[in-house]
Design a protein that fits this description.
The protein is mostly helical. It has a single domain, classed as MFS general substrate transporter like domains (Growth Hormone, Chain: A, Up-down Bundle), CATH 1.20.1250. 78% of the residues lie in helices and 0% in strands. The radius of gyration is 20 Å and the shape is globular.
């Protein structure tokens, strides 16, 4: 299932609109770690509350992604993305209006989790995959996913400046309103339901929620898809921990308070070319092989950062290298799924795989929060980060290419 051949200018509009949605959705969630200490000082909200909310956010996002992906495959990604924009705005607006532990858990933990599943990478990248020719799919998905990095590069310094100028609570409200900009972008992506591919019966054109459990069982029964899904766990585990806890870790090491925001911004800047390049790589290399090298590189870089003497320059070098492969796993994973199963159910199948990513994100964010509360530092966590990355490399290198790649 895909759209009829689109003119070149229309393809670029779809890619740009998808990138804008991903940029805003992922850019906002990358700022959560900046609120950890300011909310405590301003409103007496324990860091454990926000840490728990972000962990819950990751889990809810993962649980919702297969469902929202299946709806997007059937109804069109644009409508799903528009609904997600409203949920994201409400999720940040609720704790801004009623600053309390329940509001933070419900707003940031639940509403933004569902919202990001609607207008983050899942539905938007599936729409891009259906809109572009097969020979350019990896490159265009990589280009659209780089939008998340643009958002991180822009939103992190913006949020940091706003927190310093107007406070953490007001900043939540401002960021929530900015997410309404996703609405016009969603209208340009895939507002109508995708049509069946040639030779495909209308009833087969989309997954639908009724077929989702059977589709998930079918995909997970494929040994190599299961290995790909298991490796994606490590991506979520590592990235959620760093997004949430890197600023606090740097502050505990006695480094300047603004370095955390600078590191997250650097990650976003370097991932712009990194995501595009990873998308290009999927056109010439088995995506699972490339993923294995990404996880291996992450493990080496994390080990160097964890066991070197903390420094300003060393942190920025770490952020730059990690940033280059930060979201590069997304176009590669999407390309691997499309090669095995085609693009008709790409949103749903990516969602099933992404659930593993978000279970990892939940555990990474939650374990970091628990360790900080118990031990007062993150030192015991770095060996776990390295081990998880090595395991992910092994899983992806064990995956075999499909017998016949599906265009």
């Amino acid at each position: 299932m895909r759209h009829p051949a689109l003119p070149a200018h229309r393809i670029w509009i779809v890619v740009a609109a998808a990138a804008a949605s991903i940029s805003l959705a992922l850019g906002i969630r990358q700022t959560f770690g900046l609120f950890l200490l300011p909310l405590s000082a301003e409103a007496g909200i324990s860091p454990a509350v926000l840490g728990s909310a972000v962990a819950l956010h990751n889990l809810v996002w993962g649980l919702a992604q297969p469902v929202t992906g299946a709806i997007a495959d059937r109804r069109g990604a644009g409508r799903v993305m528009a609904a997600g924009a409203l949920l994201l705005a409400a999720g940040l607006g609720l704790p801004a209006l009623w600053t309390s532990a329940p509001a933070i858990l419900l707003g940031i933990g639940v509403l933004t989790g569902i919202g990001v599943s609607c207008c983050g990478t899942g539905a938007a990248l599936a729409a891009v995959g259906r809109a572009v020719p097969a020979e350019r799919r990896g490159e265009m998905i990589g280009l659209a996913s780089a939008g998340g990095s643009l958002g991180q590069a822009a939103m992190v310094p913006l949020a940091s400046s706003l927190i310093g100028a107007v406070g953490a609570i007001a900043t939540l409200g401002i960021l929530g309103l900015s997410l309404l900009l996703i609405l016009p972008a969603a209208r340009l992506v895939e507002w109508r339901a995708p049509v069946p591919s040639p030779g495909q019966r209308p009833g087969q054109a989309a997954t639908g929620l009724a077929r989702l459990p059977a589709l998930a069982r079918m995909a997970l029964a494929d040994r190599d898809y299961a290995l790909l899904t298991g490796g994606f766990f490590a991506c979520g585990f590592q990235l959620a921990f760093l997004t949430m806890h890197l600023p606090s870790h740097l502050a505990l090491c006695g480094l300047p308070s603004g370095l955390g925001a600078m590191a997250l911004m650097t990650i976003g800047l370097f991932n712009i070319p990194g995501s595009w390049l990873c998308g290009r790589v999927s056109n010439v290399m088995q995506p699972e092989v490339a993923l294995g090298w990404i996880y291996a590189l992450r493990s080496v870089v994390i080990a160097c950062f964890a066991y070197a003497t903390p420094s300003y320059a060393g942190t920025l070098v770490f952020a730059a290298v990690m940033g280059f492969v930060w979201l590069g796993t997304i176009p590669l994973t999407s390309a691997a799924i499309a090669r095995r199963f085609g693009v008709a159910d790409l949103g749903a199948l990516y969602g099933v795989c992404f659930l593993s990513h978000q279970v990892g994100g939940f555990l990474g964010a939650a374990a970091g929060t628990l360790l900080l509360a118990v031990a007062g530092s993150y030192q015991a966590f770095w060996p776990v980060m390295i081990g998880v990355g090595i395991a992910a490399s092994a899983m992806n290198w064990l995956a075999r290419p499909p017998v016949r790649a599906i265009a």
